[in-house]
Design a protein that fits this description.
Shape: elongated
Number of helices: 7
Low-confidence stretches: none
Number of domains: 2
Structural class: alpha/beta
CATH architecture of the largest domain: 3-Layer(aba) Sandwich
Number of strands: 9
Largest sheet: 7 strands, mixed
CATH superfamily of the largest domain: Periplasmic binding protein-like II
CATH topology of the largest domain: D-Maltodextrin-Binding Protein, domain 2
Order of helices and strands: HEHEHEEEHEHEHEEH
Radius of gyration: 19 Å
Strand content: 25-35%
Length: 231
């Protein structure tokens, strides 16, 4: 299959960017803006077919290891395999609450005031969970976990229902914030601003399509995400 794929990529290279296939793998948090980026890229290259592969961090790492995607987008490049990566956009992390939470609307809230709060958190191994644990460890804070979930959608619905707070990517909650179904808590030290990375397996020969998308992300990725987050 890899030989056939390589042959097809060679043919695509001879044809230029009139045709081709882009296989983009993204962690689940990136699915909130990846379609917007692909849509803009596709408008410039209408003959290209695109596959958007969504999974948790471990699944995307396995796709990279198996050469089952051209490029990937995730919050932190993996240490398990050798990759080439660059950061192309900021990735803020925040704490969200239901609109009727007692702390909603307060300013400069100390993290210690959340010691009695329950949290709805991502599963161990996710990029969001890792960022949360690092932030809490830096401030010597331990949260009380009410529920773990592998879906951002489940977490958002749990917070809306009043199950607790959540440390989550700002990019996952744009619609709920605009609709007033969730609020950001003004916690000291937040947002934590990480980066979004585009990457591929070290040594992989990129097709013309993947090379063009790689360049497009570098030049336009941050602006596409900012536009996608607007209400």
């Amino acid at each position: 299959m890899e030989t056939l794929r390589g042959t097809q990529e060679s043919i695509d290279s001879l044809r230029g960017l009139q045709t081709g296939l882009l296989r983009l793998a993204v962690v689940s948090t990136a699915k909130y803006f990846a379609p917007a980026i692909l849509s803009r890229f596709g408008a410039d290259y209408p003959g290209i077919n695109m596959q958007l592969l969504v999974g948790n961090r471990q699944e995307i790492i396995e796709r990279l290891a198996d050469n089952d995607c051209d490029l990937a987008i995730m919050g932190t490049p993996p240490s398990e395999i050798a990759t080439r990566a660059f950061d192309f956009a900021p990735h803020p992390q925040v704490i969200i609450a239901a609109p009727d939470h007692p702390l909603a609307g307060e300013r400069n809230i100390g993290l210690h005031r959340l010691s009695q709060e329950s949290f709805v958190v991502r599963e161990p191994g996710s990029g969001t969970r890792s960022a949360m644990e690092k932030f809490f460890a830096r401030h010597d804070f331990s949260c009380r976990v009410a529920m773990e979930a592998s879906s951002n959608e489940t977490i958002k619905q749990a917070v809306i229902a009043g199950m607790g707070l959540s440390f989550i990517s700002r990019h996952t909650v744009a619609l709920e914030l605009a609709a007033g179904r969730l609020v950001l808590l003004d916690i000291e030290g937040l947002p934590v601003v990480r980066s979004w990375y585009a990457l591929h397996r070290e040594g992989k020969r990129l097709s013309p399509t993947a090379t063009a998308f790689y360049s497009y992300l570098r030049d336009n990725g941050a602006r596409c995400i900012a536009d996608a987050m607007m209400p």
